[in-house]
Amino acid sequence: MATIAFLCAPEGTEQIELTEPWKAVEQAGGTPRLISTESGEIQAFNHLDKGDTFEVHATAADASPADYDGLVLPGGVANPDLLRTEPAAVAFVKAFFDAGKPVAAICHAPWTLIEADVVRDRTVTSWPSLRTDLRNAGATWVDEEVKICEGGPNVLVTSRKPDDLESFCQAVQKTMV
What we know:
This protein is an alpha/beta fold. It is built from 6 helices and 12 strands. It has a single domain, classed as Rossmann fold (3-Layer(aba) Sandwich), CATH 3.40.50. A 7-stranded mixed beta sheet has the order 6-3-1-7-8-12-11, sandwiched between helices. Strands 2-4-5 form a 3-stranded mixed beta sheet. Strands 9-10 form a two-stranded parallel sheet. Strand 9 (123-124), helix 5 and strand 10 (140-141) form a beta-alpha-beta unit.
């Protein structure tokens, strides 16, 4: 049974981009675990409105990527913007690439991938406003519902937005669980 880490900042995660892939991991027989930069709970959002809170299982500084089979990075604008400023979170993400483990990122989450310097020579998709950032970081950006990039040290799944969650969740199940 696969154990999948979900990395989220203490505030700003787009709730549906956390809960739908979480359910998909569980439905496929995997065990999702919430990792954050702080212990306690995270505050999710439904776009700009506060959503539910979710219990954190471990912090990025204390969690070992060796204990997980894959990593999911939910979006929301604030979530990856906060994560990319936290060295422990960036190192946690980079460790999955260094270990050749699958990673999935949706919406604005590739900002954290850019900070970890892991998108160079990869083909990815994202929320459209990240296109230039990703190209400047050495990625090839495509406007597709979901992109599974297998060229590189690991499988990288990316998706554009909440409307693409069905395809994103299927790709997460296929590549991680």
